[in-house]
Design a protein that fits this description.
single chain; alpha/beta; 5-stranded mixed β-sheet; 12 strands; 19% strand; binds fe (ii) ion
């Protein structure tokens, strides 16, 4: 393969002239932002093509790959989010849009398994709804960056069952291991979920094939998803991770941040639960996650 540095001045000029022509084709776009984004996209795409001296066969493969991503995507399967996630693009967008602010809780990837119609529950409820897994008591507070409690914050939680699947990956329309609840008058919240377990992102499609081809694992570190919203606060999309999980160092979607790794304490079956719930001889775990929301305008 010829390196870009090795091409003739005439060839280089031809390639650069094409870039200018394409960039200028967007110059009359009435929307400034759209023009900026499209022209930058063209510059970076062409730079990539020239940098690796992309072959026609490779470009056709890329188009076939994206076509396959489209074909496997439906209401339950979102291959493009997986692609964005494994390329680190999702985390880069999170980084660009969620600058660190005071002691506000850090954000991480949204992922493809959110369901906006999660069941509404009271504090203290069991959100497993029959999903398999070890019960896990999760509690914490929602405050602003000054430490003031935020009452009525909307908290969405969702997680995989112990077999590594979210409810929407089953074909029976179940709603399980997800819920929506609101912080109480003191900003507190609590629920019974499941002790998070590691799971692979769906790898039976084009993204899985790509990971295999490059020798990467589809495994995600164990985690529990949160999305927290409150008036005049920046919406927080995040997870908490399990301290000690060996996958923390090689999460397939680059979502782990040190501040989001929490202690999930294991409890024997005969240990009293925080709310007196009888777990019928099962072991359980507990975790605390205090959520700090940044102001919306930062
Ligand atoms: Fe997840």
């Amino acid at each position: 393969m010829t390196a870009t540095a090795d091409i003739s001045a005439a060839q280089s000029a031809r390639e650069e002239e094409l870039i200018q022509t394409v960039v200028e084709s967007f110059s009359n776009a009435p929307d400034d932002r759209l023009r900026t984004v499209m022209q930058a996209l063209v510059r970076h795409l062409h730079a990539f093509i020239r940098d690796v001296r992309l072959t026609e066969e490779e470009w056709n493969s890329a188009i076939a790959f994206l076509t396959a991503c489209g074909h496997i995507t439906d209401d339950r399967r979102q291959e493009f989010i997986l692609l964005s996630d494994v390329l680190g693009a999702s985390m880069q967008v999170v980084a660009v849009n969620n600058e660190a602010y005071a002691n506000a809780t850090e954000a991480t990837v949204f992922g493809p398994f959110f369901d906006q119609d999660a069941p509404l529950v009271e504090n203290g409820a069991d959100i497993a709804f029959g999903a398999a897994g070890e019960p896990c008591w999760v509690e914490g507070t929602v405050t602003d960056t000054e430490g003031n409690p935020i009452a009525g914050a909307r908290i969405e939680v969702w997680e995989a069952d112990e077999d590594g699947f979210y409810d929407i990956q089953y074909s029976d329309d179940r709603k399980a291991a997800r819920a929506r609840l609101f912080s109480d008058e003191n900003g507190g919240y609590r629920f019974w979920g499941l002790t998070p377990t590691p799971y692979p992102i769906p790898y039976d499609g084009p993204v899985g094939k790509m990971l295999e081809a490059v020798g990467r694992s589809p495994m995600r570190a164990s985690h529990l998803h949160f999305m927290v919203t409150a008036p005049e606060k920046r919406t927080l999309v995040t997870h908490i991770f399990v301290r000690g999980d060996e996958l923390l160092e090689r999460d397939a979607v680059f979502g782990v941040k040190e501040s989001l790794i929490k202690d999930f304490v294991s409890h024997d079956a005969d240990e009293a639960t925080p709310d007196g719930r009888d777990l019928d001889g099962h072991t359980w775990s507990s975790a605390r996650f205090d959520i700090v929301l940044a102001p919306a305008d930062v």
